[in-house]
Please model this.
Amino acid sequence: MMMAPALCKSGLMAAVIVLAQPGANAASPPPETRATIHYSISMVGVPIGQITWAMDLSAHAYQTSASGRASGAMSILVNGEGRVATQGTINGGHVTPTFFSSNVTDDGETTGLQMILENGSVKTLRAEEPSDKSKRIPVRDEDKINVTDPLSAMLIAAPDGEAPLSPGRCERSLPVFDGQRRYDLNLSFKRMDKLKLDRGYNGPALVCAVVLRPIAGYRPDSVLVKYVGGRPGMEIWFMPVGGAPVIAPGRLKMPTGIGTLEIEADRIDWKAAKPPAPAQ
Model:
């Protein structure tokens, strides 16, 4: 979920989760599981928005899209609306994206991009330059190597035969690049808990502590750096996704200097997926 950069002024949601419609198609086996998760967004307990995340998953491939909107008096950290999509492969315990796209509107300004990745590195990037580019920390070529996109980062591989919610799944650093910003999400095991949605899931949750470390592509005075970067206390609660070989976020809690931002799943719908349409 969560979580990732597409919906907010600072790119915060990009670090958290996201949205849109698949743009490119890679050769992959037909998906076997289709899940649609609905999340509510709140700030200090006040509802400010929602996200819908749809995913088609098979044993070795995934194709997901999300769309969301946040606004209101308390939407200080997350404000705007957007669509994001990604697809890729699941092999050897790794989720590897091959394509990522986003289209985000914030304060009346729309930004779109498309990114093709190969073996974890950016091969092609088509993006509009931000109007405040001169104020941002430059993104170097090395910042585009061995990375994942913000949506794929929230899918953690759970191969068959292994406990999907094993504490060891938290012990990782996720190098994220959303086409404009580069940051690390450093995860570590915190505890096991329980998660109950209004519909679709009631069971154990793996809670990972998260620290976001900005690297490049951001403004030094941005909200992301001021209120989120380097701060302890952030949590992502992971839950199984049916019989798919991944786990996904069910809840995000993000303490900030101005209150707690929460993104929480309230329902999930399952059904057998149809084969994707032929590539265009």
User: Anything to note?
Assistant: The chain has a mean pLDDT of 81. The first helix runs from residue 223 to 228. The chain has one helix and 14 strands.
